[in-house]
């Protein structure tokens, strides 16, 4: 396959992962274009923000024009994923093939499906039974097939649930930290005594950037650096130590609307609720060994996340 001779890195999607990744790539000295549907948002030194719709072939081609490496960090609302994400993939993959760029895909643990507590590695079989899990598995097989057939150079970086500065829509996000800091309710899901992996958003960014700089890593799935799993109860205790108060914990034992999670979201999320009724343990040892790196320690993650939420609450006051 012919590769574009350019050092431009194009990030598609400006959610927490895309934004953190664009910042990290610029910090590493790469020219960066950040593309989303609005083209607006906070300015970042070294990052060119561009408006674009990568769900169409024309929009995707325009968004990645001139790129050497493309990072697919686009996501959509839960209830739209099964319909929209395959369309985005077709447009982005087609554009990457035409451009001759490499493609780095931010991926989830959904393809593995229910593991009954088995530690997830890159060798874990894909056994998803949910609609969103099967959809993700099908997309991933299409990506890897494109690589095997030498139509594009593709690599996938899988992350556990996000946590960290800028992360709102996560089970360890806006439903937890504001309440912890203000004395309000803290929402948790399922069995909080089960171990659950969380990936620091800064490690997601650094891991994807490293994959973008490492063509020899193409053609496979990598688990992005993730701290050892802790139980949700342990994580809450660590937060309590930092905020100096007992948390008012509300636990949903079944998917129903609560706080920031409305009826539409919870209806779409219900099929994924197994992630809170069995251990979710992700192992990132292969990436750590291959790239001689380590995950962000959970202590550091919680310190940085609480500091970010304090700033957010101060802005909203």
From TrEMBL:
Domain of life the protein comes from:
Bacteria
Instruction: Read off the Pfam families from this record.
Output: Epimerase
| Domain called NAD-dependent epimerase/dehydratase: residue spans | 13-217
Signal peptide location: none
Alphabetized Gene3D superfamilies for the sequence? NAD(P)-binding Rossmann-like Domain (3.40.50.720)
**Protein name from the UniProt record:** Epimerase
